[in-house]
Amino acid sequence: MAALTKGRNTLERSGDITEPPVKGATKIFAGGLVAINASGLAVPMATVTTLVGLGRAEQTVDNSAGADGDKNVRVGRGIYKFANSSAGDLITRSDIGATCYGVDDQTVAKTNGTNTRSPAGKIHDVDADGVWVKFN
Question: Which top-level group of life is the source organism from (predicted)?
Answer without folding.
Answer: Bacteria
